[in-house]
Amino acid sequence: MKRVKEILKKHDWHLMGKWKQPIFLLGNTTGAVLDIRFGNALPFVPTCYMNFDHRQFLPTVDFQNNVAESRKEFERDAIGTMHRLKEEIARDNAALNEFAPKTLDTATIKKYINLIAPKSRQWYEIMIADGALALIYPMTLPKTFELQGKTYSAESLLPEVALPKKLFPMIEEHWHLLEMAAKLRNKKSIDDDLARHVAQYSWMNSLCWWDEPFDAEYYRNAVAIAAKRDPAQELQQEHEARRVRYAHAEVVLADLKEKYPKAWECIDIIRELTDAKEDNWDAASLAGVRMRPLFKDIARAHGLSYHQFLQLSPTEMIAFFERGSLPVAIDILNERIKHHLVINHQEYGQMILAGADVQPCEQYVVKTPPALTELKGTPVWKGHVTGMVRCIIAPSDVGAMQDGEILVCPMSDPDYMPAIRKAVAIVADQGGLLCHAAIVARELQIPCIVGTEYATKIFKDGDLVEVDAKNGIVKKI
User: Fold this and answer.
1) Is 222 in contact with 417 (CB distance < 8 Å)?
2) Spatial CA neighbour of 123 closest among 382, 413, 424, 362
């Protein structure tokens, strides 16, 4: 406890994001980020990495230094660096996707840990690449320039053309759901379609191994709701909007490539890494869903729930399989579910605090928000709207979102999709060019600003705010 407090006091902390993970996964995450054995396309690591009640932090100076070092790599060999990172991800995804044991023992759990670790390390590599590209890209263009008869700035161009090259699962899943809804509306059976849908997409509710995968009942209800609208027309409109958006982007990109090839190269890398980032963590999510029944069976055999059992750290999990009994008390596992702090340090290794020991550490990590009514962030899809705020701090709050509100959140993930589809704008504390909110906003053409840092602290439910997603400004009216 004393050493942890000393480390916390020593640093100013940069918040990377918030994901609800069990200790087994986040213990792996915090260790792997520091270990270039699991990814060295960008061989830069922080001094330490921490998960504090599902929020992920690292020292601000380390993150800034890692971004600066990554910038040098991209400036030296942008295409080569991008390909090295993509090749790492593809290679390790292939190995992880093949891993589907029938039972778990010491050897398989060790292999699983080593297969998951690269996903965390490579996620961090993409994050520092994101930071580096955000610095490089504006330098490749003049302040204003003309493409296809329209005047742009670097900021206004990016959301219009930095579109993913592939169709993301979250969009594909929604389209399949609308197809089922159209069949249901026409009084046709969807039983077979529903079974295939569950098999193909249920993992999307368990990206970080915490929540149960979606089941047939969940999707049947979602289909029934969509069927009350005109799903066939909705699907046609979305297909056409996407076709038009991509056709326009390709024409503008062709002009950009001819006039400003370095800017085109930078945007193309952003697009490639957007797809790679999705592939990277999807593989980890799918593996978690495949393994979930095995963990449940073992937990049940020892009188535990899945969530209790997954509160073992990777080292403790190995010890469990070696000994055949829990290496820590059940009370400690329960405390970790409520509150935890897991920190991995290059010198001191992994340290875990739980329960009452965690809360006093909050003062050293969480920044007091400034007294502001206006915030600046990174615009990722254009637009200018005014509306009422709805703060969604966790996926459990998504049901409170109303049509036409402005979604204010720490960051987004697929759990937030029902709220995102109701939002007239998105404002997020965290995120950059490659974050989930940015990807979804560009796909759905929702005005969006990310990286505001304090939006969820400054703005409250019911506040009337103006979102200027051209200039990256959100302010209370």
Assistant:
1) no
2) 413
Contact 58, 25 (CB under 8 A): no
Beta strand 425-428 with 406-409: parallel, antiparallel or unpaired?
parallel
Distances (CA, A) of 374 to 19, 102, 279, 367: 26, 54, 35, 17
CB 292 within 8 A of CB 306: yes
Q: Which two tokens stand for residue 288?
A: 């978690």
Domains in the chain (CATH in brackets) are 2-136+291-365 (no CATH), 142-259 (no CATH), 374-476 (3.50.30.10)
Backbone angle region of 445, left / alpha / beta, with phi > 0 → left and psi within -120 to 50 → alpha:
left
274: closest CA among 372, 415, 193, 163?
163
CA distance linking residue 298 with residue 175, whole number of Å:
37
Cβ burial, residue 114 (10 Å; 0-12/13-18/19+): middle
Residue 363, classified by CB atoms within 10 Å of its CB into exposed (0-12), middle (13-18) or buried (19+), is: exposed
The C-alpha atoms of residue 81 and residue 100 are separated, in whole angstroms, by 31
Q: Which residues pair with 56 in a beta bridge?
A: 17, 51
**Chain CA centroid to CA 428, Å:** 12
Taking residues 27-40, report their average pLDDT.
95
In degrees, rounded to 5, the angle at the alpha carbon of residue 254 between the alpha carbons of residues 249 and 257 is: 120
The rounded distance, in Å, linking the Cα atoms of 223 and 52 is 37
Tokens 């593996």 correspond to 287
For residues 208 and 287, give the distance between their C-alpha atoms in angstroms, rounded to a whole number. 10
Give residue for tokens 């402005």.
Answer: 406
Question: Please, what is the end-to-end C-alpha distance for the chain in angstroms?
Answer: 45
Structure tokens at 420: 């995102």
* Residue whose tokens read 């069976």: 297
Mean pLDDT of the residues in the chain:
93
Per the DSSP assignment, residues forming a β-bridge with 146 are 151
User: Position of tokens 């059976």?
Assistant: 189
Q: What residue spans of 137-190 are helical by DSSP H?
A: 154-161, 169-185
Q: Rounded to the nearest 10 degrees, what angle do helices 154-161 and 261-301 cross at?
A: 50
Instruction: Classify burial at 84, counting beta carbons within 10 Å of its beta carbon; exposed 0-12, middle 13-18, buried 19 or more.
Output: middle
- Is the whole-model pTM more than 0.85? yes
Strands lying side by side in the sheet with 349-354: 13-18, 55-59, 48-52, 340-345, 349-354
Average pLDDT (256-269) is 98
**In percent, how much of the chain has pLDDT > 90?**
79
